[in-house]
Design a protein that fits this description.
2 copies of one chain form a homodimer. Chain A is of the alpha+beta class. Chain A contains 10 helices and 19 strands. In chain A, the strands form 6 sheets. Chain A has a 6-stranded mixed sheet with strand order 4-3-2-1-5-6. A 3-stranded antiparallel sheet of chain A has the order 7-10-11. A 3-stranded antiparallel sheet of chain A has the order 8-9-12, covered by helices on one side. The first copy, chain A, folds into 2 domains: about 130 residues, Creatine Amidinohydrolase, Chain A, domain 1 (3-Layer(aba) Sandwich), CATH 3.40.350.10; about 210 residues, Creatine Amidinohydrolase (Alpha-Beta Complex), CATH 3.90.230.10. In chain A, strand 18 and strand 19 form a beta hairpin. At the A-B interface, helix 5, helix 8 and strand 7 of A face helix 5, helix 8 and strand 7 of B.
C-alpha cells in the first residue's frame, strides 16, 4: 500500500535507499510485512519484503504462501524454490545500495545477520519511523479496528448471560473466546485473562482451574483478532455480592477512567492522560495500587509501540489508537481494571469499544 | 530449572560466562525465558534473565509481573521501579564478563543493541545450542505436550458431532477453539485453520466467510496451548459426498504419513523421513503437489527450530517432538493434510496425538 510506504519514509530521520523487512519464524514475524502488503491470509515465515522511497515494493515468499501472496495488489512477488533463493534475492535487491533500513523492533538478531551478510550497505534501524507511521492509523485500519472493538464490546455485554458462580476460570475464558469467534473474530487478540479472587490482582494472569466464588472480583480482559488487527477490552465483575470495599475500588477505577477520557484530545501528551487517572487513584485509600501505564497503542500488535504512560513520549494526533485501562491491584486480595479502546480524532476521540461500565454482580 | 540450563551449556560450542535473555514486546518474547524459569503465568515484556555455567540464574521483571514471577523457584528476582533499572541491572550483571551469549533467534535487533550498550564483552549468538537443548524435551515437557496433544485429539474425534454443511469457516474455527478450551487449553496454539473447498489448497489459510458446501474438502488444522506448550493436529474431512479423485488424494496422503511414521526412530535423519512421505506422493498422479516440509519440531513454539525436511540437518534423538504432516495441494481445487505429533523414544516413537485417521464424510 503506497500510502503506508509513503508515511514510513515521511517519518524517516535519515534517508535510506530502501527498507528491508524479513520475517523469521512465528511469532517473530514483522507486522510491517502485513502493514505494507495488506495481506490478511497466510503466515509468511522466512519471507521478505523490500520497499523504496519511490513507493514501489517487491516481495519474496515461500511456495506454501504463494497462493496467499496473490492477494497483494501491485507487489511483484518471487516464489522461492529453496532457501538459497532468499539469499540471492537479498543480494540482488541490495546490490549497489548505500544505505538500507531495517525494523530493529521486529527483526531478530539472526535476521539482521542474514541481511548484513548480503550487503555492504550501511544498515540503519528505521523502527522509530515505522512505529510513527503505524501509530497513525488510516481509514481502512480504523474501520477494521472498529469492527474488532465491536466484536469485543458485544461479547462484554453478553457476559452476564454466560458466566456464573462455580465455573472455572478457563471455562470462562473458553466462553468469551467462543463468543468472539462466533461474531467473526479469527482469533483471540491475546490469551483471554479470566482472573478471579486473588488472581484478579495479577494484571497479566491468564486463566486457571480456580472456580468462581461468592465475593470474588472477576477481571475479564480479552480482545478480538480481526483481519490481523486487535481490540482489547477489560470489564470487572463481582460474583454473588459486592462488599463496600469492592464497590469503592470499582468506583475509583471507573472515575479514573472517566478522568483520563476527558483529557483525550489531539495535541495533549500521553503522560498527562496517564496522570489524570493516577491522580484519581492516588487521592484515595488505594494510593500506589495503580502499577502500570494507563494504556498502550494497539493495531496489528496488541502493544503497538506507543502508550499513555510516563515512560513514553508521545503527543496525541488524529488516527492514534490507544487503550485506556486504569486498575487497582491489591496483592492477595484482588483487583479491578476497566479498559476501552479509543481513536484520537480531529475533535477529540471516539470509542472503539463501548460496552456498559457500571458494576455488575454475576 | 538447573537441568535445562545445564543442557544449554552442554550444547555450547563456545564457552561464555553467562547467557542473557531479553524479552521485547509481545509477540517478540524469547521462549527461552519460560524454558529456563518454568513460569506458566505472566507475559514478562521488557523483562530479563541471566544464567551462568554454574547453573544459577537471576531475573529482572516489571512491577506488573512481580506476582507472577514469584512462582519461579530459586531464581533471585529484582522488580523494576522504572525502565532505567533494566539498564543498570544489565550493566551490573555483565560487568567484568568477557564473553556473553544471546539467543539471536528470538532477541530483536533492538534488544541486542540494548545488551551491547551495557557491556564491552564479546557477544556470541548461542541460538544453536538453545535450539538443541529445547529440541530434546525432558519428562516434564513431554507430560505437558502429551496433555496438549490429548486435548487436540479429543476435539478432532468430536468434530463430526459439531460441524456440518452450511456452516461458515470461521464458525467451524470457533467451535474447534471452544472445544479445546473447555478441555483446559489456555488458548489456541495458533489461529485455527478451517479451509474449505479451494481454500483447503492454501496450507496457511486461516478461516473466512465461505460456507461448507457439498463436495468440499475441509482441512482443519489446530492445536492446544497448554502451560505455554503447543500441540498441532490436522484432519481433513469431506462435506456431503467424496468423489473418487478426493478419495485417491486422501488415501495417498494417509499412505504417505504411514510411510513416514514407519521410518521414525532414534538415529535416523529428519530428511529421510520427509523423503519417505514424498516418495509415496510423487509416485502417484499427485507428483509435485506436496509443497512443504513433512514436519516441524514443536514445543514452546509451534515451529520450535528443527524439522523433518530436506532443509534441516537433524538426526533424531529421544525426546525430540515433531509433527508429521504430509499434504497434497491442488491450487483452485483443494487440498488434504493429515498431521500428528510424535515424540522420539529409545525404542522408536510415541504418538502425542491419536485421533482416528480414516476418511470421514460430514
Amino acid at each position: 500500500m503506497k500510502s503506508r510506504i509513503k508515511k514510513i519514509f515521511e517519518f524517516a530521520e535519515e534517508k535510506v535507499d530502501a527498507i528491508v523487512i524479513y520475517n523469521s519464524v512465528k511469532p517473530h514475524l514483522d507486522k510491517t510485512f502485513f502493514y505494507v502488503t495488506g495481506l490478511t491470509e497466510g503466515v509468511f515465515e522466512n519471507c521478505g519484503l523490500i520497499f523504496y522511497p519511490d513507493l514501489s515494493s517487491e516481495m519474496i515468499v515461500s511456495k506454501l504462501e504463494a497462493d496467499s501472496a496473490k492477494k497483494a495488489e501491485n507487489i511483484p512477488t518471487k516464489v522461492m524454490e529453496d532457501k538459497e533463493d532468499l539469499k540471492e534475492w537479498l543480494k540482488e535487491k541490495l546490490e549497489g545500495l548505500d544505505k538500507i533500513g531495517i525494523n530493529g523492533s521486529e527483526l531478530t538478531y539472526k535476521g539482521f545477520d542474514k541481511i548484513k551478510d548480503s550487503t555492504d550497505a550501511e544498515i540503519i534501524d528505521m523502527s522509530d519511523s515505522i512505529v510513527e507511521a503505524r501509530n497513525r492509523k488510516d481509514e481502512n485500519e480504523i474501520e477494521i479496528l472498529d469492527k474488532a472493538g465491536e466484536i469485543a464490546s458485544e461479547v462484554a455485554e453478553e457476559i452476564p448471560d454466560h458466566i456464573e458462580k462455580g465455573m472455572k476460570e478457563y471455562e470462562v475464558a473458553a466462553e468469551i473466546s467462543y463468543l468472539m469467534k462466533k461474531k467473526g473474530a479469527t482469533g483471540d487478540a491475546f490469551e483471554v485473562i479470566a482472573g478471579s479472587g486473588p488472581n484478579s490482582a495479577e494484571p497479566h494472569y491468564t486463566a486457571g482451574e480456580r472456580k468462581l466464588q461468592k465475593g470474588d472480583f472477576l477481571v475479564l480482559d480479552f480482545g478480538a483478532l480481526y483481519k490481523r488487527y486487535r481490540s482489547d477490552i477489560t470489564r470487572t465483575f463481582i460474583i454473588g455480592e459486592a462488599s463496600d470495599k469492592q464497590k469503592r475500588i470499582y468506583e475509583t477505577v471507573l472515575e479514573a477512567q472517566q478522568a483520563a477520557l476527558k483529557k483525550i484530545e489531539s495535541g495533549i501528551k500521553g503522560e498527562e492522560i496517564h496522570n489524570a487517572a493516577k491522580e484519581v487513584i492516588d487521592s484515595t485509600e488505594f494510593e500506589g495500587k495503580f502499577i502500570h501505564g494507563l494504556g498502550h497503542s494497539i493495531g496489528l500488535s496488541t502493544h503497538d509501540g506507543s502508550g499513555l504512560s510516563p515512560n513514553v513520549d508521545v503527543t496525541l494526533e488524529p488516527g492514534m489508537v490507544f487503550t485506556v485501562e486504569p486498575g487497582i491491584y491489591i496483592s492477595g486480595y484482588g483487583g479491578v481494571r476497566i479498559e476501552d479502546d479509543i481513536v484520537v480524532t480531529e475533535d477529540g476521540y471516539e470509542m472503539l469499544t463501548d460496552a456498559e461500565r457500571e458494576l455488575k454482580v454475576l
